[in-house]
Amino acid sequence: MKSFQCQNCGQLLFFENTQCLHCGYQLGYIPEAQVLTALNPIDNQLWQPLDSTVSHQQFRLCANYTQENVCNWLISADDPNPFCRSCRLNQTIPNLNEGNNRKLWADLEVAKRRLIYSLWALGLPVVDKEQDPERGLAFDFLAPTGDDAEPVTTGHADGLITINIFEADSVTREQTRVAMDEPYRTLLGHFRHEIGHYYWMLLVQNSEWLEPFRLLFGNEQEDYGQALERHYQADPPSNWQEQFVSVYAGAHAWEDWAETWAHYLHITDAIETAREFGVTVRLKAGSSRSSLTMADLYSQEFQNIVDRWLPLTYALNSINRSMGQPDMYPFVLSPKAIEKLSFVHEVIKGGH
Q1: Confidence of residue 30 (pLDDT cuts 50, 70, 90)
Q2: Whether the predicted pLDDT of 216 surpasses 90
Q3: Closest by alpha carbon to 161, among 192, 182, 131?
Q4: How far apart are CA 8 and CA 169, in angstroms?
Q5: pLDDT band at 190 (very low <50, low <70, confident <90, very high)
Q6: CB neighbours (10 Å) of residue 136?
Q7: Under 8 Å CB-to-CB from 225, ≥6 apart: which residues?
Q8: CA-to-CA distance for 269 and 285, rounded, in angstroms?
Q9: Contacts of 269 (CB under 8 A, 6+ apart)
Q10: What is the mean pLDDT of residues 52-61?
Q11: What integer pLDDT is reported at residue 284 of this predicted model?
């Protein structure tokens, strides 16, 4: 995640901000330019950005910005769609008049916008189902209704990602994490995992990557339901860390891919954010800090990313421990897991 500054006063800004707390200027994010900018009103609908790279253009606020206050993205003035490029991916949102649904949905949208930001930063295609009904992307944010309601299962099917909105409730999510004995469970992590299934369909299925995928991750044609049933009924093998990034990755080849994909986004996002805020860690004792740009880093072999990631995790985990908090990244990357991450890296590079 990039860092931002208010173009009017220079105040540090964050990705989700809608107003500069120093000078009071209205803010908006322009996804095409990847800038968060202060805005001058032109009339009751149009705004002009102060950022010099886009100041010659005019924009409208996303309908979810003006009507629901859950978005801060802008739309080009000549785009007829009332929703921004993130919100138009929504197929279903929860009933906002029930319970805490409005707050939960707002948290879902924050995580989704961070996901979409990352996908574009990596050069991956993000196409909605209106543009491509068969291979486009859409989201259903659902909540069980009534005492006898069917449970909502978070998952992916043919480009439609369904998220149980109660995953946005921190208490519920923590209870589930403990019950399932997971070291790490986050809302953004769900998005990253499920989008991994989508990009397997988009980039690996029916492509030249399929056979190399099977050699590394296993045969995805194995019965999925039986594999999950076996996973949940049996204890994980004692040596699972030698093969997988997580216990759940061992359930099925699809889940191995999705978990590995999610970790790739964890790693690359964290490295970029650390770099944007000037956080660097020496690769080895006595070595100099790297001056590579992120674009340079992503174009190289994945081992170069690993060489920067591991020292960063050691530092961040140590900082968390000094604050009495759990490790920021409570995972061990075995040589096999790194090989799988490298495969994801190469698929993404080839998917531009």
Answers
A1: very high
A2: yes
A3: 192
A4: 36
A5: very high
A6: 19
A7: none
A8: 24
A9: 1, 114, 118
A10: 94
A11: 59
Q: pTM for the full model?
A: 0.92
Which tokens is 162 given?
A: 């369904």
Could you tell me the sign of the dihedral formed by the alpha carbons of 267, 269, 273, 276, in that order?
A: positive
Amino acid at 295: A
Q: Which residue has the tokens 């490029």?
A: 85
pLDDT in tens, 68-109: 899 999 999 999 999 999 999 999 999 999 989 999 999 999
Distance CA 149, CA 151 (A): 6
Range from 64-78, 170-184, 224-238, 332-346 carrying the lowest mean pLDDT: 170-184
Angle at 190 between CA 129 and CA 111, to 5 degrees: 75
SS3 sequence, the chain?
CCCEECCCCCCEECCCCCECCCCCCEEEEECCCCEEEEEEECCCCEEEECCCCCCCCCEEECHHHHCCCCCCEEEECCCCCCCCCCHHHEEECCCCCCCCHHHHHHHHHHHHHHHHHHHHHCCCCCCECCCCCCCCEEEEEECCCCCCCCCCCCEEECCEEEEEHHHHCHHHHHHHHHHCCCCCCCHHHHHHHHHHHHHHHHHHCCCCCHHHHHHHHCCCCCCHHHHHHHHHHCCCCCCHHHCCCCCHHHCCHHHHHHHHHHHHHHHHHHHHHHHHCCCCCCCCCCCCCCCCCHHHHHHCCHHHHHHHHHHHHHHHHHHHHHCCCCCCCCCCCCHHHHHHHHHHHHHHHHCC
